[in-house]
Amino acid sequence: xxxxxxxxxxxxxxxxxxxxxxxxxxxxxxxxxxxxxxxxxxxxxxxxxxxxxxxxxxxxxxxxxxxxxxxxxxxxxxxxxxxxxxxxxxxxxxxxxxxxxxxxxxxxxxxxxxxxxxxxxxxxxxxxxxxxxxxxxxxxxxxxxxxxxxxxxxxxxxxxxxxxxxxxxxxxxxxxxxxxxxxxxxxxxxxxxxxxxxxxxxxxxxxxxxxxxxxxxxxxxxxxxxxxxxxxxxxxxxxxxxxxxxxxxxxxxxxxxxxxxxxxxxxxxxxxxxxxxxxxxxxxxxxxxxxxxxxxxxxxxxxxxxxxxxxxxxxxxxxxxxxxxxxxxxxxxxxxxxxxxxxxxxxxxxxxxxxxxxxxxxxxxxxxxxxxxxxxxxxxxxxxxxxxxxxxxxxxxxxxxxxxxxxxxxxxxxxxxxxxxxxxxxxxxxxxxxxxxxxxxxxxxxxxxxxxxxxxxxxxxxxxxxxxxxxxxxxxxxxx
Length: 480
Prior knowledge:
Elements: H1 7-37, H2 42-49, H3 57-81, H4 83-103, H5 107-135, H6 141-169, H7 174-177, H8 179-193, H9 207-229, H10 234-257, H11 271-277, H12 280-302, H13 307-323, H14 325-354, H15 364-388, H16 398-430, H17 438-457, H18 468-471
C-alpha cells in the first residue's frame, strides 16, 4: 500500500505526465488538422494561382514525401540535440511554413512552403511521443497516450468541415494562417512545461541507413499516394512500389549489421510492440483509417447528400470518438489489453461492416447510433494499440521505437485509403459501371471491416496479462 507521504509525490508525477502529454497533443492537433483541412480548399487555391485544380495535388504530395523522407532521422536528432529542443524547432518550422503557405501567391511558393511544413511534421510526431514516454511512468502511460491520440481521432473528422466553413466564409489562406496562433501557444507551452532533458550520446549519424530508409519510405508512400490519386500510370506505380520495397529490405539488412544503426530494430523482438505496430496493428489501423475516408464519400456520392448534412453525420462520429475517452482507462484496467483489443476491435470492425447495410431510407437515428458506436470503438482501439506498443519498451529503445511506430502509422494511413479506393474501383469495374454507386461502397465497407475483424482476432495470441504493468489489469484469482 502506498503511504501517505508518498501520495503527494505520486500525484505530482501523474499531473506532470498528463500536462506534458496535453502540451504535446496541442502540437499534434495543429499538424493533423492541417493535413485534413487543406483538402477542401484546393479548388479555390487553384483559381487563386491561375492553374487547374488537379495541379494542386502536388502540394499534398510534396508535404507527404518530405515527411516520409525525414521521419527516419527524427529519433537520432532527438537523442543528439535533446528531444525538447528538436520538438521546439519542429513546431517553429511548421508554424513559419504555415505562414508562408497562407501568404503564397504562386504554386512554386506554395510547394516550397509545404516542403518545409513536411519537414517540421516529420520531426514533430516521433519526438513528441518520445517526450511523453520519458515523462510518464508506466502506471500513467494509458492516460498520457490517450491524450496524444485524440488529435488523430478528431482532426480527420472536423478538418474537412472546418476547412469548408473557412474557405466558404473567409478564404483559403486562413486554413493555413489558423496554425499561427496554435503554433505560438504550442511553443510557449513546450518551453514552459516540457522538461529540458539531457540529450543522450547518439553517436555519429548513420548516413547509409538514413538514405536507404528514407528512400524506401518515400517510394512506398509515393506509390500508394499515386494509386489513390489515380494521376500516375500503373507501370510507374508498380515501379515506385518495387523500388520502395527493395530500398526498405536493404535498409533492414543494413540496420541488422551496422554497429550503430540509425534505427534499432530490437523493438520488433518484443511481442507487444511487434503485434501492435507491425502485424495486426498495421492491418487494424488500415481498416480504421479507411473509415473517415469512406464515410463522407458514402453520404455525398452514395446517398447524394449535400456537404452540410454529411458534416452533421461526421460530427456524430466525432462525438463518439470523444465520448470513449472517459472510460478508456477503467476499461483497460478491468479487462486488460488482450480482451479489449479483441472484443472492442471486433465491435469497431463490425460497425464498419454495418455501414454497408445503411441506405438513404435508413432511419437517421439508427445511422447516428451506428456512427456513434463506430467512433467510440475506434477511439478505444487506437488508444489501446498506441499504449500497449510501448508497454514493454526499454528507455534505450524509446527513440527508435517511436520513429518506427510513426513510420508504420503513416504507412497504415495511406494503405487504408489505398485499399478502400481499390475496393471501390474493383466493385465498379466488376459491374461495368461508369461511376461509383451505393453498391460499390457496400463492398468497400465489407472488405475493410473483414480486414479489421481478422486483425483484431490476431491479438488472441497475446498473453492475458500483456501490458498489465501499464493497464493495471491483473488476472482474477480462481477459487480453490
